[in-house]
């Protein structure tokens, strides 16, 4: 099995068609955690999650990404039961009330499986299906979108782009070999996951190199520590830094950007797409 000879033209997640290259798509972050690094955690409150999801949908989000465990460095892991109790009611409520693709940010098979049953259509695993390899079995039997992330927390790399590209290629090939179509695979270089400041900046700078894998690219820099380290600002004051990395990422080939501030970043995406893709959209 080889990587696709060219990037898929389009993908279908839920009822929404994604035309890759037409414009940049926006993934809005809905944290049902108690300890989100960005201070926006809603806790196990599905009604609050639905309210935020409605707002994001109105502001222009194309996907909603629901996470029940903080992935910030040094955060305390939650057990599976607690993650299920946070995530599944929110997924179910949002899926029943909004016609928008729902993604779930998890590295556990049990959570992923229950989320897909509850209405999610994308699994976003920041460990690239390596923390719980049984996710590959789920991918083989359950149609869904899979966001695979390069994570160096347990395997530091010197040549970061070579390591990121190699890891994503290996995971994508394994999924393809299990019968997952290329249109259902999205790659994420994993800014902030086991990288130094210099490596994170290098990933944004060299993002275009991932285009050789011929798969849609997701970039998540929103409010992350690389911005705080450069600008010396707390998470709530990283809007301009996020905007800069989003714009540069679009210039480097990002197809999806994962963000906290949907309305603001939609304007950034629209302006960037007008320049980079030559396309003006609403």
TrEMBL record:
Its EC number is 2.5.1.15. The keyword Magnesium applies. It is an enzyme of class 2 (transferase). InterPro entries: DHP_synth-like, DHP_synth_dom, Dihydropteroate_synth-like_sf, Pterin-binding_dom. GO terms for molecular function: dihydropteroate synthase activity; metal ion binding. Keywords: Folate biosynthesis, Magnesium, Metal-binding, Transferase. The keyword Oxidoreductase does not apply. GO terms for biological process: folic acid biosynthetic process; tetrahydrofolate biosynthetic process. Residues 24-270 form the Pterin-binding domain. One of its GO terms (cellular component) is cytosol. Pathway: Cofactor biosynthesis; tetrahydrofolate biosynthesis; 7,8-dihydrofolate from 2-amino-4-hydroxy-6-hydroxymethyl-7,8-dihydropteridine diphosphate and 4-aminobenzoate: step 1/2. Its cofactor is Mg(2+). Pfam families: Pterin_bind. It catalyses: (7,8-dihydropterin-6-yl)methyl diphosphate + 4-aminobenzoate = 7,8-dihydropteroate + diphosphate. Belongs to the DHPS family. This is dihydropteroate synthase. The gene is folP.
């Amino acid at each position: 099995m080889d990587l696709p000879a060219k990037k898929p033209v389009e993908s279908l997640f839920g009822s929404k068609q994604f035309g890759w290259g037409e414009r940049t798509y926006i993934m809005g972050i809905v944290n049902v955690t108690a300890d989100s690094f960005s201070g926006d955690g809603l806790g196990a409150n599905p009604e609050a999650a639905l309210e935020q999801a409605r707002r994001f949908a109105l502001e222009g989000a194309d996907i909603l990404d629901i996470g029940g465990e903080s992935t910030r460095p040094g955060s305390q892991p939650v057990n599976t039961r607690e993650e299920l109790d946070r995530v599944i009611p929110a997924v179910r409520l949002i899926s029943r009330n909004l016609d928008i693709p729902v993604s779930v940010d998890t590295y556990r098979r049990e959570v992923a499986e229950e989320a897909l049953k509850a209405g999610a259509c994308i699994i976003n695993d920041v460990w690239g299906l390596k923390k719980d390899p049984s996710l590959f079995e789920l991918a083989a039997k359950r149609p869904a979108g899979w966001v695979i992330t390069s994570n160096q927390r347990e395997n530091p790399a010197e040549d970061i782009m070579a390591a990121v590209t190699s890891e994503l290629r290996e995971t994508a090939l394994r999924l393809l070999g299990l019968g997952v179509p290329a249109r259902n695979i999205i790659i994420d270089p994993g800014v902030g996951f086991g990288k130094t400041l210099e490596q994170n900046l290098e990933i944004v700078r060299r993002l275009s190199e991932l285009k050789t894998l011929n798969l849609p690219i997701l970039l998540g820099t929103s409010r992350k520590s690389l911005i705080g380290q450069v600008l010396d600002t707390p998470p709530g004051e990283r809007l301009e830094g996020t905007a800069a990395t989003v714009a540069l990422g679009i210039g480097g080939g990002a197809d999806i950007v994962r963000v906290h501030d949907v309305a603001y970043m939609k304007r950034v995406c629209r302006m960037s797409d007008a320049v980079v893709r030559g396309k003006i959209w609403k």
